[in-house]
Structure formats: C-alpha cells, structure tokens
Amino acid sequence: MSEPKMLKVIQPNESPPLPIAVKPPAKKINIGLIQLNNSFSEQCYFPLSVGMNQIYAQTYLSYPDYFRFLLSLYTFMPIEEALEKLSDADLLAISLYVWNFENSMAIAREFKRRYPDRLVIVGGPHVPDSKKQFQRIKKTDPRPDELKRKRMGMTEKFHRNHPYIDIAVHGEGERVFRHILEQVAIDGLANKSNLPSISYIDNEGIFRHNPKLERMHDLSGVPSPYLSGTFDALLTAYPDQKWIAMWETDRGCPYQCTYCDWGGAIEDKVSLFPIDRVMQEAWWFANKRVPYIFIANANFGLPKQDVQIAQTLADAKLATGFPEGISVQNAKNPKPHSFVALEILEKAGLNKATVMSIQSKNFDTLKAVRRENMKTEDYQGIQKELRAKGVYTMTDYILGMPMETYESVLNGVSEIIEDGQHDRIQFNNLSILPNAEMGDPEYQEEYGMETVRTPITNIHGKKNASISGIEEYQELVIATNTMPREAWVKTRSFCYMVGLIYFNKLLQIPIMILHEVYGIPYRRIFETFMENSQHSDKFPVFAEILDFFHEFSRGIQNGTQEEFYHSKECLDILWPPDEYAFIKICREDKFRQLYEEAQEMMVNLTGSDHSNGPLLDAMSLNGSLIKLPFQTSDLELSLSYNVWEIYRAALIEQKLELKQGTYSYTIDRTTKTDSANTNARWDSWEEWYEKMVWWCNRRGAYLYGNKNPIPDLAGHH
C-alpha cells in the first residue's frame, strides 16, 4: 500500500507559480473598467484605481496588443446606459468601495445575465477578505480555534450572495490583474488555481481562497496612469468635464486603527513613489488645469518628500493658477517637517484645513481601537504654532466608538478645546467597513455595537441624488454596551450643540471669556447649555434647538433619517443639523432672543462675586461680529473691556490680563467684491446660505474678521 501523497501548504509569504502566457489569446479581449465615484459640484474623480491596473497590465503583459481597454466608467449613470457602454466587453474589472457597491453590483449582475459566458472581476477595499490578519492574529496563519471565528466565512458569503462574480481580488490589484489577464490568454480563465490573492467558487461549487501575493515595497516599477496617457481618452471624450485628481504619492499606513480599512490592501509599511514621477504628475495636473486634488495617502506629511511635493504644488499654482485646492489626510502623529509642508500649502492658498486626527480622548477607547494619539503637550504646541502662522486646523472626532460614554465625550471635547482647537471639531458618525477589524462580527459583539443601515449622503449634497435610482448604503454604529441608545442620542445632540454655539461661532467669544477671565471649565459651560436647554418654559429657543437635535439623532438611529438635514427652501441641499439650526435662528429672527437666553445662562455661571461687565461686552461683541445678510452699513462698537484682544490672544494660546477702558472698533459689513476672500456682504438669503454658511463651514469663518475660504465642494471635508 503506497504512502498517501502529502500536499504542500503554501504559506502567506510564498507565491504559487504565476501564470505567464506563451502565446497570444485566440482573439482580442475587450476589457470594461468601472470605478464609480461621486460627483462633487459637477467635478468628477479620475478613476485612479482602474487606471493603475490598466497601465500596469499594458506595460507588463506578455501580449498587451491583444487586450483592448474600453473607456472607463468613472461616474454614476443609469444602469442601462452603463450596460450599453459595456456591450463589447469580454471582461469587466470593477473597483468596489462603500460609495459605489450597490450600483457596481447592479451593473455586474445585469451584465452577467445578458452575457453569461463573459467574465466579471471585482477588487477594492469593499471586497471582504476573510484572511486579512489583524494585529491580534500577529500576521501568521490563523490557529485552528481562530478558524471558527465568524469572520472566516465572510468572503465565501460574499461570493454566494453575488454568484455573478467570477473572481474577487484581495489587496493590491496591479500585479494580480496582470496575471488574471495572462490566464485569460492561456485558457480563458478556466484554471484559477495559480492566481494569487483571489477568491472564487470553482466549477464544482467549492469556495476557494488562494494564498496572497506579497505587497509591493518598491513602487518604481508601477507606471503612472496620468503621465502614460491612460486618461487622455477620457479628456478627449469628455472635454467639458471638470476633474478632481485622486493622487497617490506613497502607499501604506503604520497604524492599526480597528475602524479604518486604509491598510486593508496594503498593510502597514509606507512605500514611496519615486519623487521624479510625483513631481511630473504635479505639473501634469497644473497644465491640464485640474482645479482640485485629493492626495490619497493615509498620512500626508509623514515622509520628508512631502515638503518637496507641497512646494511643487505651490510653484505650479503660482505659474499656472492650478490647482486651486488640495485635500489631504494629515499624519496622525506629525513630525516637524509635516508642518513645513502644510504651511507651504497654506501660504499658497491651497490648503482647505489641516486635519488633526484625534478621534477620541478616552484612554479605554483608544486602547480598544488600537490607536495612539500624540501627547497632549505636543498637540498643544502644534496647535499654537499653526494658529500663529495663520494655518487653520480641524480635529476629527468619531462618535460611537467602543468604550466611549457620554461623559467621556463631554470630557474629550472640552479637553480638545482647552488644548487649543477653536476652528472646528468635525464630529463623524462611526461607520463599519468590511475590511476594517471593526468589521469582524465578534469584535462588534465584544463591545455590544448596534448598527443601522442607512443611505450614504454627502454634506451640502443633493437629496436622492442617485442618477441610477439605486441608493448606496453604510452601516452606522448607533449604540454600544457603554453608550446605550438614549446615551448615543444625547451624545450626538451634545456634539451638534457644541458645533452650533462654539464652532459656528454663535457664542464662541463669551464662552471663551467665561473660561479665560472667569476660570470656568469648558465642560461646565457646555453642561449648562445642555441642561438648561431642556427647560422650554425658561429657554424656549434653546429648548427648540435641543428638541430638533434629539429628534434628528433618533431619526438616524432608527434608520428613518439620513446623516444630514434636507432643506428644500435652503438651496435644496443636505445641511449638517447645527448649520441648519444656525440658518433657522437667523431666518426666523430669533437671534436676539437666543442671545438673551444664553446671557442668562452664562451670567448664572459667573456667580455674585464677579462683575458681569466683561461677559456682557463679549456677548455684545460676538453678536455684532456674526456675519449676517442684508447689512447696509458698517458698525461702530465701543466696549469697556479688552475682551476682543483677550479672545484673539487665546486663539493662539496666549493669555492677556483683563483691562478696563474704552475700546472702540469699526466692523466692516458692507465691502463686496467678486473675490470669495473679501466678500463681506450678502444681498440675498440664497447667497448667504452658500457663500457664508456653507463655504465658511470648514474653518468656522462665521465672524467678521475671518477671511472667507474659496468656494467649497459639496461632500468634501
């Protein structure tokens, strides 16, 4: 009796023999590329992901002339229109993410129904990868007990639910896509066993998940779809299209945050694209007059070459006028050179806002999500330095994370403000992504995470804007075992309230004077507004505002309300609830009553041992500085205390003593030019909604004396 044959187990760091065609395919293969991206203010992204796959394949295929790439589908359209454009395709290659999944699947499903013998290949961050190994598994093969984990069936379930998909690609796509096409040339993709980093259902109905290909660390061999002319056909076909460049100058993320899937395809090591290539791409954008660039790096400013990149963009704008704006995801724990790069962008008028990614200040939460924030003293120093240089910052904070409570959010937000953030905290709802560790069902069970499936909407975007009629959805966390449902509603409402009274600047000056002059903690001030706003008999305007925030938050939680508030009469777009409350107060002429109620709350905080003169001056100053429409004259204002100087000093982390005297100011409320930076007068509600409330959101530039930013794009932060 012969010995049983031993099968070799391929380890994750090994690769099977990769297919290479030795002769061309029997006929030319037409390839349809699909990367559906949202359109922002009539601007669309170049389809970078499928463009990278296309140029890599064309460069390295054994017989590239036998593969014809159709014009990429880069934006949403009716499904029938998409299928007409793809009618000649022998193979679809689709890049999936949360914002395009449902529409992409609808195209793939109908394509396969019409052409059952043609091929559908998908890749991208939204393809669930059961074999993705998080830090807790230490990047080794899962132990037998780990195989029992619920996550291990996610990829198979994905295939069973979408049987029209022939192959799903996991991780970096360029090399895998090339070898898939080599296999197409060899046998029409009959044999998939030697293809790395893919999963599929074989002819016998058995689920297969092939070993992964090691990621690329040397990116010098990856051609640029911009410089190679890959997108020239799109530019020719759509001469009137305004483009947004998605730009990758490095790849990788050194952090392990459980809510983020940025490293889902590329894991942790940061690899750089050659600087010469990057410089040429920057000038390509400028010469093609691309107005807006999204730098798709996880940590802009972490590599030292980002200083050179920033300078090149600044030089390009000076020479050509383009680009007009840059959006970056800043380094989580920045280095000194990180701020040199950001300052260059700011001075060139390119930087929308510098994002400080805090996400939470709660130690238990940071431990649960495996995130390490910068030290408090470093954060304070950075805020002070940037503010002194005129660089605006915005802090990201995620609501609904594990171990977070109402109390911890109250403390965390107050601490961030005390540490020097006075421009903007952007409060994001926690969304579950399939390739983030938080997408693991057992992770969610551990922290009691409840989710709701809700349509994806864009800030300042249009309601029901789907061209195809097919909605895209996300999974929002709306409760945890430390933040039950009512606590989540209270926390969400608190953040809207802070956004309204502090970062929309309705009451920022008196709140800061309460802290700086009277020594009252920010936490106590915000608690006072939340508690008093529950009393409709005494504070009816604030009670109405808090009721609106509560009702809206419960709507999100119950799945009956999108993330933003639709107002048909206010530009017919979706507003953050705090912005809409700001608009409503002004439209309904409740501004004065709101100030009277706020003054009573804050006077009660000061106690009988203090003079209320500085606080009353601060109230008068703040009310006079709010940018309102229909102003026909400048304003002369006289105060008895130097509260304006104290406020301005506190913004850059300096402290001035309170002084009494005569302090006179002239407030320019009438200058109006065509420049967004100097437009200080708005002659209609519609103009005010757009150019003041909307465009000033990111920097919180709602007071006279703040420069208005350049026009903003819908959906962009």
TrEMBL record:
Residue stretches making up the B12-binding domain: 16-191
Alphabetical list of SMART domains matching this protein: Elp3
Gene3D superfamilies: Cobalamin-binding domain (3.40.50.280), tm_1862 like domain (3.80.30.20)
Co-factor requirement: [4Fe-4S] cluster
Pfam families (alphabetical): Radical_SAM
Domain spans labelled Radical SAM core: 239-463
Keywords: Iron, Iron-sulfur, Metal-binding, S-adenosyl-L-methionine
The name this protein goes by in its record: Uncharacterized protein
Stored InterPro entries: BchE-like, Cobalamin-bd, Elp3/MiaA/NifB-like_rSAM, rSAM, rSAM_horseshoe, rSAM_sf
GO cellular component: cytosol
Lineage top rank: taxon: Bacteria
GO molecular function terms listed in the Swiss-Prot or TrEMBL record: catalytic activity; cobalamin binding; iron-sulfur cluster binding; metal ion binding
